[in-house]
Amino acid sequence: MQIEQVHEYDIDEELRTSIYELLMESFPEVYPKHRIYFKQLPHFRFIAFDKTHQLAGQVGLDYRVMNLSGRPVRILGIIDLCVSSKIRSQGIGSALLKEIDRFAAGRSIDFILLFADQMNLYLNNGYSPYKNMCKWLKIDHKALTMRGIGAEAMNELMIKRVRNTEWNEGELDMLGYLY
């Protein structure tokens, strides 16, 4: 398996089609038609290819500042990590997470953040669940329009510390959209 970092603006039509098919397979009836992003383009992706250079998995990444209990924190957000159903449970998801860890090490990133319905993969890779009250910009993913500000305690929030900064369960203002 080979993992490549690809900036969103460098994705060609062939890779775009493969990513779209993987997202539709992984998130059926949820993902918008003809798009390879849900609410907003990620800054870049890690793409996993198998031995025949076929798409095996992908993860989008978003870098931004958020406000945690009144202080700025630098967040690398994980968006839509997914692996082809034909080759799941072979360590590809963990390999993508390890690639994210390598990327984040030594950079100006305080935490890696994600939201997960199924937490086992992330728990096994050093992520911890938190239940913060979160605020975010609500976006209608179909019409791509703002709908206001959302606020609620999030049970799906998971965090991995990158730098020597402490996370707390205070209010998290995402200063943007919810992944």
TrEMBL record:
Gene3D superfamilies: 3.40.630.30
Boundaries of every N-acetyltransferase domain copy: 6-147
The organism's place on the tree of life at top rank: Bacteria
Cited InterPro entries: Acyl_CoA_acyltransferase, GNAT_dom
Listed SUPFAM superfamilies: Acyl-CoA N-acyltransferases (Nat)
Official protein name in the record: GNAT family N-acetyltransferase
